[in-house]
Records
---
Amino acid sequence: MELTKLTACQAADKIRKKEISVPELTYAYLDKIIELNKKIGAYITVCGQEAEKQADIVQKKFDKNEELPLIAGIPAGINDNICTSGVLTSCGSRMLSNFVPPYDATVIKKLSQNHAVLLGKLNMDEFAMGSSNETSWYGQVKNPWDPERVPGGSGGGAAAAVASKMACFALGSDTGGSARLAASFCGVVGLRPTYGTVSRYGLVAFASSMDQAAPVTRDVADCAAVMNVIAGYDPLDSISRDSGYEDYTSFLENDVKGLKIGLPKEYFSGAVQKEVKEKVLDAAKVFESLGAEIEEISLPLFEYALPAYYIISSAEASSNLAQYDGIKYGYRAQQFEDLVDLYKKSRGEGFGEEVKRRILFGTYVLGAGNYDVFYNKALKVKRMIFEEYQNAYQKVDIILGPTAPSTAFKIGEKTVDPLDMYLIDAYTVPVNLAGLCAISLPCGFDSSGLPVGMQLIGKPYGEGTILRAAFTYEKNTGGNGGIDRGV
Amino acid sequence: MEYEVVIGLEIHAELATKSKIYCGCTTEFGGEPNTHCCPGCIGMPGALPVLNKAVVEYAIKAGLATNCEISHYSRQDRKHYFYPDLAKAYQISQCEYPLCRNGYLEIEVNGEKKKIGITRIHIEEDAGKLIHDEYGRGTFVDYNRSGVPLIEIVTEPDMRSSAEVKAFFEKLKAILEYTAVSDCKMQEGSLRADINLSVRPKGQKEFGVRTEMKNLNSIRAIVRAVEFEAKRQILELEYGGVIERETRRWDDVKGESYSMRTKEEATDYRYMPDPDLYPIYVDQEWIEQIRATIPELPDDRKKRFISELGIPEYDASIITASKPLADFFEAAAKESKNAKAISNWVMGDLMKKLNDTGLEPSDIPFAPGNLARLVSLIDENVISGKIAKQVFDIMWETGEDPADIVEKKGLKVVTDTDAIRSVIIQVISANPKSVEDYKSGKTKAMGFLIGQIMRETKGKADPQAVNRLLKEELDKL
């Protein structure tokens, strides 16, 4: 039995049946990391010793027949923008290439309380800014399906690690689609929770009004299991809310009868690749055959989502990243003349090009005279998009569309013109702007054998409905069956 | 030409809450550098602010006590600038939607009453402090103060003289002390003022160009800075110059201000609503709950002191301007039957001691009851007024009960007429010249003789008895 092929739920079951042990499972993953990480580049930091130690501790608990949470003993990778006490948290940036937080993010505390085994920290686009993992200071993550292609971004490390069996599941983040896009390119499952569902405490801020940690998993059931661990109100995050869910796995029902699924025509026109469109429409037919009602809808504000997203997210990023000044922690330039020079050089050398571009852009749109023209207007567009989706949900229960306009593209293909890259996010960002939830899951392969991802978009706190629909699709199609064709 | 000075203030007061505005760290002053800190205070990645409810309550209290409207909706914004003491490189403040607006305070200068408008009061966080190493090893940052809650009180440009500024500032300080919103310890920087000042020819409607002076931290400095700047601007205009819109720094040692930066160099703070914090919603019920906790304010207390305790209006204004002083006075007056005498002691010897020692009214080293008993000792003729001053000095030094002091030092008035008479006879025989003068009608000589007798008795002789007996003895001659 190849232990790393088991999903979290399957492994949990076998651990309880004493068919496998937690250390065995953990070693299997660590071996896989040794075998593949050089090729894929998914991990920035591997915590081998800590993982082994934790595996032993958890196994002892199992040996004493302690009743443990489902996720106990399951080896996981963590995005490098989630603070881990005593372990480098670089955000894929030279700026934080020496930053070891003295505290755990709330989601890490929750994983620890649930006795998960943390394997290490995952590569990502610098400060989560990017769609291809080409902006990381720690190098390019490669797509396990084709090492010449990008894994998607910013959570490329998370999706690639899960797809290539270097982690049973991963915690990514999703500000504009990072977890979903990478999941889509790597043929795994990624869930963007409703804003406020998962505590942001310890998640290094990119665009605070949209940041959420996000599970990246092998299948839908694992996704629900991870949500059970990480969701919940946190007094350390003023924005966090009790979403009202007690058990996300209770929605894992094979039933979509009567479910109204909307297909927005804007998601199926324009830039979308023909094969991607076909696969997603095929999925719609599957839903229809299982008793769901398919309806074409229209979201005319779709085209405004991307500019609004880039204005808002860059404005917030320019503010959030101002604290990296070379004074308190992080990268400091070796030589400088005075305070201003220290700032300029540390930030100039510490940040990469894409991050600098967004800081400049964000600073510009917040500047005196520009605030109302850009930032405030973008906030208005955000509000209108929210209302447009609210109206759509009067008619349908969930919205179905492609996660990205294409499958994984070649490394370097879109780095010349940043706008080319931004367009990859067109289908994911409306979800973040409108405060919705969405799950991306594989729905087949294109002719080059690359995974195609579709996303099911739910209304705010509609995780239960999208999990049920995604689970039903997976059950009836074999879902992640294709995963084994990966590296 | 005659000029009119126009002044507005921006006052920062540290709130007296136990914990900081966005975390649970203590607000206590001092402490080893960077020990009152958490990831949020130091601006570490991933840390988030959680608003301290008490900060909102304290600020609303300040607003209500200064006749402000309280906003049912207010917002927290980020104000961006780079400086090492500002950990996040933005300060969470309030820009467009402050917590309190449209208040006023009434002041009185030279018997004239005047309303000074308060434009707004908003909440914000304080920054850390830079410590320049005295051995030249560089500059260090202490973030203990980072995140200490502040309110900023912005006035209308309603003040016209340093006297009005002083009256307003003292009034505001008293109100913040009375409501316990701030401890107002200016020497620790918990109350500081920025001065906006312009001048214009008398009668002109438009304001002149204003300058701003930042971080004045004593009333004396505020008064001097206003006077200096007004004079500087008037001279500038008189000599045909122009006033530049600029920020100036007041040097209290040199007693002058100098330019820091002009408007062209002003920072664009790029205010934006803080996405980490929800807007603050305040309903009427909450406002009323807070209103109910506001104690008697200086104006009402002053009126009560005049009507109930019968002290002069002038004394009452001075005493009520400081809450600890008014508390001390009131406690002493309640224990005494003679409030007027207590007020005289407070206005006289006590104020002088405070001034001489530089202590605050909260540091008075003896209990109010001791002052009340001191007054009783005088009123009951146990000691003389002169001796009382000695006793007061000892009370200040030791905090002892005045009756004990009198007993221990043997300071009781000598009412024994035989004893006094024998001293008188002694003094008369020792000063034949004065006796002669007296006899020849020079009444001044009487005073000299009394002085001699008091000296001999170390001031303990009952003055009335001395007067009566001396006359008797002199008449016998």
---
Amino acid sequence: MATKNVWIAGFVAPVMLAVLLLTAASPRVKANDAANAEVKIDNFSFGPQSVTVPVGATVTWTNRDDIPHTVVSTEGVFKSKVRDTDEKFSYTFAKAGTYPYYCTIHPKMTGQIVVQ
Amino acid sequence: MANNKQDLIDQNLQDLNNDGVDRRGFLKCMAWAGTGLVWTMSGGIPVSRAFAKGYGKDAAKSGDFTFVQISDSHIGFNKPANPDVTATLQTAINKINAMQHKPDFIIHTGDLSQLSKPSEFDTLDQVLKGASPKQIYFVPGEHDMLSDNGDEYLQRYGKGTKGTGWYSFDQKGVHFVGLVNVANLKAGGMGSLGQDQLEWLENDLKGRSASTPVVLFAHIPLWTIYPDWGWGTDDSEQALSYVKRFGSVTVLNGHIHQIMQKVEGKVSFHTAMSTAFPQPAPGSAPSAGPMKVPAEQLQQVLGITDVNYVVSGRSLAVVDSPLGASSPLASGKETEW
């Protein structure tokens, strides 16, 4: 066990660090970023309204309005706290499916995340 | 009734005479000056005319009463549209305290706070404490129900109410009903009263004489103003079906931060200005977000609503006043119908 830990620390960790650094440095190599997605809240709407991501992806919502909003799954899968201006909410989707959501304060605001 | 109307007209004319302006000139001037609009209902026929500044004195006969509606104070909001919403609420309270005819009470039609924070409610309470009418009736806006299903709001302002904060009371023969249409909103929908509240409302109104004047107040308009922005209440039609048999129904709302009026049969609808910041006219902007106006114009687009109930005429007169005096009322054109 102790040997294994040393192995991880001595070999895997530096490699991972290198990969991370490479990823950060190069805009074209974005294996992880490409999977994740951003949704902006502007003018009382989610943009893009529909986002498709692979299983395991993290979606991050950012409220850019002067008014608070929420990001709440219609089927109770996820539920943000109230997000005021510039506040974010993230959710990582572990299962495939279509996830409709809305702002509980302004229910006309709706969107969906399609996880494939 | 006719006499009442005549009184108002006479008084208008008298004021004109004092000012040395003819009636046509006066009306034009008032539309520009935005002092307000008297809104009188008589036998289901709405009558509107420019508000004469002396009206309040005349209305204060014994048995008559006055209340003031304030709305959308959004305490905690600090964005460019109004960096100091506490100060503008204070201005509104000062205006109420300076009224010649002392209002019997205040109705706040919701969005007391921006984020339902205890500190925001504390600040609101502090300012309202200075109001001369000690009785204040509240209904919540969606901004007041953001934490713990509205518990913070209900603990402070919902004592003795039902469900998510609805209730009714009587004042000198007028029946008032405070409704909540900001709780448990459904995806894609507008405001919602919900089945429990509708049943309660039906029972609350049952057995009351059709001659009882009824005032319904709620945060989101109980009539559909602009569905794209959610400016309406999905099940308001059912609620309004319960008041159809009454001879005088007044519906007071907030939420849209501007004056809108409509009369449908014996039901008169009215929305109030905010004390915090204006919002755009329906469809005139990409969204309903706070509208930034030059600082010197802000007080013209914020305001209070003064409602006079005249017993002899069974009429309610609704008068909107901007916080700043004698300047253009941005929403003046919307008061014509």
---
Amino acid sequence: MAGQLLRYGLTLRLYALTLRRFWGTAIAGQLEYQLNVLIELLAAAANLAGSLFILSLFFAPSAAGGSSPALGGWSWPQALVVQGIYTLLDGVATTWLRPNLGAIVTHVREGTLDFVLLKPIDSQFWLSLRTLSPAGLSELALGLGLIGWALPRTGAVVGPHQVALALVLLAAGGLILYALWFLLAATSIWFVKTWNATEVLRAALTAGRFPVTAYPPGLRLLFTLVLPVAFLTTVPAQALLGRSSGGWVAGSLLMAAISFALSRSFWRFALRHYTSASS
Amino acid sequence: MVRVARALLVSQVALMGEYRAEIALWALSGLLPFIMLALWRQAPAGAALGLGPEGLDRYFLSAFLVRQFSVVWVVFAFEEDALLGRLSPYLLQPLHPLWRYVAAHLAEQLTRLPFAAAIVALFFAFNPGAFWWPSPGRLLLAWLATLLAFAIGFLLQSLIAALCFWSEKASALERLLFVPFLFLSGLLAPLAAFPPGVRAAAQWTPFPWLINFPARLLAGLPVDAAAGLGAQLAWIALLLPAALLLWRAGVRRYTAMGA
């Protein structure tokens, strides 16, 4: 009788302990997550503050006085719009591109890409939009906030026309950004360890923090045709400010169409060379 | 002691040699100073710095080089080792585990050397006017300052790495260290461009001593070498005991992953 009671007591204690462990780890995991979100938010805000500080150095009042300083023909609030669009696109990259396309490398290495390919759904779609990392949402909000703050101060008349055009060009820029990331991630079919090629891409894309006209002519050409940074930030900003020209709009749409088509056909081409993990 | 150090270095160099392609890509991802150089050269604010066009070129090239040879990634390597349980055997060895990471970093820098040299050669090919030979004294001082900058960066990250003993995701904290480093170190703009108030405040953080000071030494720009080296040594004197103490406290509560 006493022994049975003892056994019940022990089982109960075991369950209580396990339950405590379960809840403890669950809460710890949740806390970890909250802390991470807090850290990401703090880092994003500090990153934006630092970027604005560096940008402001280019607008330091010169000792000689004269006309108000400008960066490549862009005034301070106008340059802030570019900075805001960059922050927005960076948020897109953190929220969707990095977690999803980073997983491609793991899928290739561990052979789980097979399971993705077997699903009755487009593999590029599945791989590109599978997850979402909330860490980048703060950057999206900060970018939008900065654009909203800076735009009225540029003195530009912003009508529904400009906003609509800017949204189209922003979507085109997003598509170009996606295609660049996806092309790099797709090369992991052959090289497996190409993930830090995306670090090179990220470093190069920071050029988009500044209006493309601030660069010397050679780099301007490079950032328009080879690494189309100009279409990511400068062209949508021009549209918002009512300074866009038909040539740039057409160029942006064309570049987006080409990049997207290229990413699709490159993925098909890459899959033809895919031989799974162990073969 | 010397034998241990040699064995450790030789094995790490061999290991890093296997990752040549990756390290080349890392070297390439350090191109940010060149993008900033292009901006500073075009902008009127760049001319107002009083460094002259060659001075700007040399500053940013030096900043690139200093960064290449003071990159620290101990927190990421350590976090992986701690999570995968590789740390346990390291702790049993009669050698402080941090030495293993120091050797890995030095080996990685050695592997990086040819790629960094290639980028420098390319820079001078496009920009022959900027070419210069630092005087032997300056070169020695700059090398020493870069080494000390690496030591400060390594200690700072070791502090965060030691937090891995408490939290599984301490590397997220590294971002909070990297952001002020990026903007205050002089990688994106020479400290001379900062407004006086910000510059004075930045001098009290470790960051300008990591890039701005060694880069100015290497570029042959006017700089107070004694004050700079003194500040670097002061930071090391502050950070070294802190990192070791935190590490010891962490090891005491370490129970290996899954235990």
